[in-house]
C-alpha cells in the first residue's frame, strides 16, 4: 500500500543518514550517521533504497510540462507565464524546467549509484535493493535519453572535488540505450523471485522496461522486445498483472455495461466516481475524486506514491524543522491536477477533443475529460477543457503517479509484433490490442494497422506523458507535430523533438557537452 512511504526516513544524503525507521528523528541533529556507519546497520540498504524512491518523487513534478505539453494533446493558455512558449515549442536552454528535470533524474541516479557501488556489502535479505538501484538508474537514464537524446551515462557517484564529471561525456543515443538495457537486465536477475510490491521496482516491471527500451532505441530490436513482452503477457497471472475489466453482467443494458467500464477506467489511476448513471441519456452523472484505497490494483505495475501525512517520527529533505508535513510527497504535479486547471495548464487541444468525444470514446471520455467544460467547448471552441485523470488540488493532492500499467504492456506487445510494419493479422497482436479496446467499450478488430495502434495509445494514455515519445518511437513526430504546429501557428520543426541540453550543465563543464541542434 502507498502508506509504505509513511515509514520512509527521507532526510537523506550520501554522507549522513539516520539510524532506524522506527526511531524518532531528533530534528536538531537529523543526520546522525555517516554512510559507512549506515551500511553496517541491519536496515541500512533498505533506507538507501527508500531514499532512491523518495528522490524520484520529484521527477514527475514537471515532466508533463516537457512531454505532454509539447504534444498535440495539451496546451497552456496565454496567461500562464512561459508555459505557452513550451507548448509552442519555444524552449530556451536556460529554461528552469529543462534544467530541473535533468537534475532531478541525475539526483536519483546518484542515490542509486551509492547502492550499486556498495552492493557487495548488502546482506542476503536486502539483495533486492541492489536490483531496485539498477532499475531506477536505468529508468532515470531512459527518461533523459528520450528527453535530451545524447546524454552521459553516469555509473558511479561522482566526486565533484576532482571534477569526475569530465570522465562522462555525452554518448550517442544508441550507446545510452545499450547501457540502459544492460541495467534493466541486471535488475531482473536481482529481483527474480521477490514478492511484488507495486510501489517498488519488480522483476516484471524490469522486463517490460527493457522491452520498451528495445523499442525506443534508434534501431528498434523488435524480436528481443517481443520475447520479453511475451514472457509477461503469456504469464500475466503469475506476475499479478491484468486489466481492470468488468465482464458484462447478464441482462445489463449497453448503458449499464459502459458505466461499469467507466468506473474501471477511472479506478486504474485510483479515482472514485461520486455519482450515478443518468436516467436521461445513460451517461455517468457526477464527479471524480482520488481514493487511495483504489490506487493499488492489478493493472498498476509500478507506481510512485504520494501522500500528505502528518507525523512526529520523520521529516523530509524539503521540510523545515518545525514542519512535520511530508512536503515532497504532495501531489506529483501542480500542472496535471486541479491546480493546473485553475492556472490554465494541461488544457485539451482542439485536436484531442475531435477524437476524445462521448460518441467515439464512450468509456475513456468520462475518466479523461471534464464533461461540463467539454459541453461549454461545444458552443465555444476557445473554452478551456481540463482533465479528470488527476482530480485533486495541487499541493494537498495525493494522486499517485503510475509509471507503468498493464494496458501499456498489451499495446507494446502488439507494437513489437507489428515490428515497424504498416499492418498485421497476427492473432497475438490482435488479441492484446482487443483487450484494451474491449475495456474501452469499443468493437474488436480483425486486423491492426500502425496508425490504429498509435491512435489507441493516444486515447488510452492521454495526460500520462506518453504521447510525445510514442510519436517519436513510431517515426511520426515530424508528420503529426508539424501539421499540428501549422494549424495552431506554433513553431515546431524536426529539431524540437528533443529538449535543449541544459545550459547549466554546459557551463559547469566547459568544452565537454554540445548543445542539441536547433538551440
Automatic annotation (TrEMBL):
Any idea where the RagB/SusD domain is? 384-519
Top-rank taxon? Bacteria
Q: What is its main location?
A: membrane
**What InterPro entries has UniProt attached to this entry?**
SusD-like_N, SusD_RagB_dom, TPR-like_helical_dom_sf
- Please provide an example of a Pfam family that matches this protein in its UniProt record: SusD_RagB
Sequence ranges assigned to domain SusD-like N-terminal in this UniProt record: 45-215
- Which portions of this protein are annotated as coiled-coil regions? none
Record's protein name: Starch-binding associating with outer membrane
User: What is the source species?
Assistant: Algibacter luteus
Amino acid at each position: 500500500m502507498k502508506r509504505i512511504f509513511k515509514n520512509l526516513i527521507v532526510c537523506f544524503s550520501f554522507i549522513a543518514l539516520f539510524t532506524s525507521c522506527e526511531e524518532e528523528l531528533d530534528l536538531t541533529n537529523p543526520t546522525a550517521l555517516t554512510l559507512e556507519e549506515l551500511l553496517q546497520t541491519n536496515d541500512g540498504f533498505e533506507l538507501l533504497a527508500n531514499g532512491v524512491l523518495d528522490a524520484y518523487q520529484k521527477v514527475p513534478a514537471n515532466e508533463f510540462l516537457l512531454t505532454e505539453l509539447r504534444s498535440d494533446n495539451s496546451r497552456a493558455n496565454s496567461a500562464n507565464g512561459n508555459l505557452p512558449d513550451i507548448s509552442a515549442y519555444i524552449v530556451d536552454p536556460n529554461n528552469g524546467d529543462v534544467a530541473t528535470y535533468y537534475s532531478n533524474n541525475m539526483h536519483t541516479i546518484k542515490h542509486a549509484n551509492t547502492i550499486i557501488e556498495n552492493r557487495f556489502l548488502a546482506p542476503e535479505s536486502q539483495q533486492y535493493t541492489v536490483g531496485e538501484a539498477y532499475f531506477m538508474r536505468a529508468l532515470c537514464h531512459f527518461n533523459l535519453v528520450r528527453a535530451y537524446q545524447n546524454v552521459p551515462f553516469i555509473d558511479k557517484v561522482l566526486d565533484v572535488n576532482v571534477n569526475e564529471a569530465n570522465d562522462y561525456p555525452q554518448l550517442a543515443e544508441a550507446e545510452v540505450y545499450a547501457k540502459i538495457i544492460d541495467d534493466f537486465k541486471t535488475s531482473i536477475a536481482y529481483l527474480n523471485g521477490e514478492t511484488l510490491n507495486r510501489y517498488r521496482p519488480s522483476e516484471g516491471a524490469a522486463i517490460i522496461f527493457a522491452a520498451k527500451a528495445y523499442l525506443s532505441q534508434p534501431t528498434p530490436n523488435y524480436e528481443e522486445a517481443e520475447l520479453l513482452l511475451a514472457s509477461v503477457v503469456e504469464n500475466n497471472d503469475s506476475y499479478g498483472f491484468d486489466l481492470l475489466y468488468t465482464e458484462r453482467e447478464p441482462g445489463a443494458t449497453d448503458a449499464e455495461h459502459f458505466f461499469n467500464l467507466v468506473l474501471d477506467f477511472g479506478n486504474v489511476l485510483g479515482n472514485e466516481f461520486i455519482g450515478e448513471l443518468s436516467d436521461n441519456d445513460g451517461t455517468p452523472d457526477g464527479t471524480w475524486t482520488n481514493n487511495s484505497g483504489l490506487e493499488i490494483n492489478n493493472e498498476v505495475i509500478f507506481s510512485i506514491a504520494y501522500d500528505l501525512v502528518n507525523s512526529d517520527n520523520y521529516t523530509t529533505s524539503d521540510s523545515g524543522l518545525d514542519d512535520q508535513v511530508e512536503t515532497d510527497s504532495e501531489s506529483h504535479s501542480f500542472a496535471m491536477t486541479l491546480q493546473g486547471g485553475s492556472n490554465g495548464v494541461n488544457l485539451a487541444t482542439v485536436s484531442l477533443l475531435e477524437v476524445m468525444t462521448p460518441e467515439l470514446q464512450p468509456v475513456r471520455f468520462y475518466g479523461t475529460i471534464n464533461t461540463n467544460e467539454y459541453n461549454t467547448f461545444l458552443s465555444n471552441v476557445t473554452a478551456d477543457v481540463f482533465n479528470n485523470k488527476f482530480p485533486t488540488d495541487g499541493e494537498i493532492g495525493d494522486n499517485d503517479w503510475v509509471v507503468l500499467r498493464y494496458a501499456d504492456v498489451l499495446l507494446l506487445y502488439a507494437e513489437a509484433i507489428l515490428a515497424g510494419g504498416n499492418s498485421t493479422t497476427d492473432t497475438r497482436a490482435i488479441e492484446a490490442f482487443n483487450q484494451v479496446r474491449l475495456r474501452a467499450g469499443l468493437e474488436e478488430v480483425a486486423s491492426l494497422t500502425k496508425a490504429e495502434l498509435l491512435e489507441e495509445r493516444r486515447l488510452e494514455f492521454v495526460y500520462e506523458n506518453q504521447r510525445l515519445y510514442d510519436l517519436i518511437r513510431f517515426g511520426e513526430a515530424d508528420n503529426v507535430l508539424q501539421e499540428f504546429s501549422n494549424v495552431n501557428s506554433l513553431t515546431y520543426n524536426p529539431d524540437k523533438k528533443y529538449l535543449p541540453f541544459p545550459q547549466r550543465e554546459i557551463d559547469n563543464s566547459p568544452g565537454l557537452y554540445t548543445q542539441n541542434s536547433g538551440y
